[in-house]
Write a structure and sequence with these properties.
Length: about 425
């Protein structure tokens, strides 16, 4: 529903009632709603005649949504008839089931504004603040081996995402024949786990991460690397009290000092130029404050895989004699195991030249002579041309937490001719 009064004040609202067979029957149906308000400030008498402010509106909204897509039959105990016992066909339990499995709910509040300055909205600004609470979050809780199962699927966690999004664009120069436009957008997101389960406030999230109250979702959990012992060439690790040892214990030495898989800052900027029939544009994107497990290094520098391709770092930068430096660029003695530590969690921030496009349109004065051709455009384009990053893997931009077994984004060049008749 939508209602606008006096061309200035708008109220919106919606309600829906959804059902899903993926959750327990008692949780099958739920209602969800949203409400919003918008104030067209430009229409007010005190701003209507302003030549500086061409557009200004304020908005706020609150709504609830949910997802039942944790998986099929997670609320049921399941069995498989693909085993035998004592030579007799049998069935085996494959999942314990969670009879209380529910939807994953999201409550979101948003407030923001749109601002246009100068004639024709030559300078445009958009900003939003949001606060998003996810409850009944889908998580897989590790179980004791004595249970006969590895995990139990829960809808129990709670998480908050809070941040701002900003966009600025405008025409820097604009004449009859020439236009130069710039645009920038950026987002900041602060993530925090508020609740795990009613029994514990943390547990392992896979092999390399931890789910813990107070920390961001996707936080890595690994022993802190203390370099190579310059005398013996042994790998060294920090204990939790700050002391250094050559004994590796992932259960007692792991810390949350290595950052999160999900970025805090994202954004991009673009520019475009046009002069008569010639246009040129470029688009950059960036991600900052994000970490990833570079298991490319982990495998390439591991002596257990010495029969595979070996890196220069593995062959030349390994400790060989007493006195060799023990910094991160030096690998431990060849007979010392290569264990997972904080040095494998590397900064995956990057700035990428995403797209460049140059085009030329033939003038209409030339096309008019042909009588049947309405438009001709010649263009060249490049994608993923350059990337600036300290990430040592193939490509820092990847949705996976790992760096290995993934294809990098391809660099693509395109040239074309468009003819309209």
């Amino acid at each position: 529903a939508r209602y606008t009064f006096d061309g200035k004040y708008t109220l919106t609202g919606s309600y829906r009632y959804d059902g899903s067979t993926r959750v327990a029957p008692e949780n099958k149906w739920h209602g969800f709603y949203s409400i919003g308000a918008n104030w067209n400030v430009k229409a007010e008498d005190f701003l209507k005649s302003s030549e500086l402010v061409n557009d200004l509106s304020l908005r706020a909204s609150y709504g609830t949504t949910a997802s039942p897509f944790g998986g099929d039959f997670l609320y049921l105990s399941t069995y498989a008839a693909n085993t035998s016992y004592g030579g007799v066909a049998a069935i085996r339990a494959t999942a314990p089931g969670n009879p209380g499995f529910d939807w994953e709910y999201v409550d979101e509040f948003n407030v923001g504004f749109n601002l246009g300055l100068f004639k024709g909205n030559r300078l445009r600004v958009t900003a939003d603040y949001y606060n998003k609470i996810t409850s009944n979050m889908f998580i897989d809780q590790p179980l004791s081996a004595t249970s006969g199962f590895s995990i139990l699927s829960l809808s129990a966690g709670k998480m908050r995402n809070r941040g701002v999004e900003f966009e600025l664009s405008g025409d820097v120069l604009k004449t009859q024949d020439f236009t130069w436009s710039l645009g920038v957008n950026a987002g900041y997101n602060k993530n925090k786990i508020l609740h795990v389960t009613d029994l514990v406030d943390s547990f392992a999230d896979g092999d390399t991460r931890i789910l813990k109250v107070g920390l961001p979702y996707g936080t890595y959990y690994a022993p802190d690397w203390a370099g190579v012992n310059p005398t013996t060439g042994e790998a060294q690790y920090y204990n939790l009290d700050g002391s250094i040892t050559t004994t590796y214990n992932v259960n007692t030495q792991s810390t949350t000092n290595s950052g999160s898989l999900y970025p805090t800052f994202t954004g991009g900027f673009n520019t475009s130029l046009s002069y008569k029939g010639i246009t040129a544009s470029a688009l950059f994107s960036f991600v900052s404050d994000v970490m990833r497990w570079n298991n490319e290094d982990f495998y390439n520098e591991n002596q257990r895989y010495a029969t595979s391709n070996q890196t220069v770092r593995m062959l030349e930068n390994r400790w060989q004699a007493a006195g060799d430096s023990g910094n991160d660029a030096i690998l431990q003695r060849f007979d010392i195991p290569r264990n997972f530590t904080s040095k494998d969690i590397q900064d995956a921030s990057f700035l990428r030249l995403r797209n460049v496009n140059i085009a030329y349109r033939l003038p209409k004065t030339i096309l008019e002579k042909t009588k049947f051709i309405k438009g001709v455009k010649v263009f060249v384009q490049g994608q993923n041309l350059f990337t600036w990053t300290s990430w040592r893997g193939l490509d820092p931009e990847n949705n996976s937490q790992y760096g290995r077994f993934q294809y990098p984004n391809t660099r693509t060049y395109t040239a074309g001719l468009n003819v309209n008749f």
